[in-house]
Amino acid sequence: MSINKSSKDTDRGIARSAGVIALATLASRILGFVRDIVIAQLFGVYLYAQAFVIAFKIPNLFRDLAGEGAANAAFVPVFSEYLAKERAKEFWDLANVIMNLLLVLLSAITVLGMILSPVIVRLIAPGFAADPAKLAATITLNRMIFPYVLLIGLTAYCTAVLNSLRHFTLPAFGPCLLNISIILCALAWGEGTTGLASGVLIGGALQLAIQLPMLYRKGFRFHPSARFGHPAVRRIGVLLTPRLFSSAIYQLNNFADSIFGSLAWIVGDGGVAALYFAYRLIQFPLGIFGNSLSQAILPALSSRAAEGDHAQLKETLLFGLRSVLFVMIPASVGFMVLSKTVISSLFQGGRFNAYSTGITSGALFFYSIGLFAYGATRIVQCGYFAIKDTVTPAKVAAIALVLNVCLNAIFMFPLKLSGLALATSISGISSFLMLFMILRRKLGGFRVRGLLEFSFRVLCASIIMGEVCFIASTYHVALRNHLLVRAFDLALPIGCGIAAYVIMCHALRIEQIKSFSKMFGIRS
To answer: Where are the alpha helices (DSSP H) in 116-230?
Structure first.
């Protein structure tokens, strides 16, 4: 079979898998928006909203490990080797050994986290010490929801096993249950810590429970055991340790934003919650397309690397980069143009007032600058994981963290909260460029010129789309007195922008529009 034919078959398989994940993730993200709207309406950007954002930081780290692929990065390449060699019995034996090991480690982390909650909160949000009520509520909430670490850690592992077996749907659907749980519990208990904590724990349990039957069907049988030794455990540990370190650094970037955002006397009140709501919006396209594509592409890349087929591996990587840039570049432009419209339409009301809208939309604008880099970085990282290099991404992440902290300290004075978002974007773009150039050297070069030409055409189409969005939003603002609902207030410019982007993609002969259409079963 020729490389071109094999490449097309691989691309189609990745597109189908990514499409399934993306549709499930879309449902989750929509529910996540509903969740955030409920929290915004109930709590604004004030005490309990800020307490929830900070208290959920550490437990949410483990959810991000599942989404970002730390578990996949370590487990999928090793598991793929066993599957490629048809060693099913050893595969399930290894799966059981790791499950027992994770139960012990995650339980210990959970207990320590509950005990050390006061220290954790003071480290993440030192500004809260000036408000005893806010500090106490955050510590209480952090302690209540820390068992989520155990639940989501096991969920991440189950996701990795199922992904190794090329099953993606249930793991992608799981976050929907978390969002539904938080929504219902927050509405049931109202303002306070009980509803938020109950929602997180119930949702975490449901995310794990939904995957277990499928694991059983595939052949997994859990046997409690103190036997943690297995030839592959050390290899997985070698891969997992730097990846966890890299993910922890990525989270430290978010923690750095929270630390600076909690300094209300510099950046203004409500900074922590405003950054959270803005970054949640950034996560919408990133989760649907960036995460979905990286999750689907890793098993294919791992198989190519195990076979020593670097030519096919590079072709698959380029396909992934083109696909993610095709979505993230216009998403960046769209968020920048419509930042205020998006925030006011989705969140404004109740305790989320005009001040809340102003600081949140500013953060969204500057976060959007780096959106294309956040998505592209996830694809490039998959290339490293496939060749079993988890050290280089960790080193680059450490450099990006230092850069982000320095830029936060510089930009927060002239730009206030928006400066923190701008610092994150600059460090994200720098991280992508470093990772890409190093991987290019490791694999013996990419067809960079073609990728640059593709990106330029996508940027041109995106700029036209942005102009259309701006005109449509301005026109609609003039019609506000005609009793148009807020949903239409947002849908009009977005709908016009998407139509303009599709037309421009065809006009500029951007081939990715066809792959994107096939991903969702649409004929282009």
So the answer is: 117-124, 132-145, 148-164, 169-189, 194-218
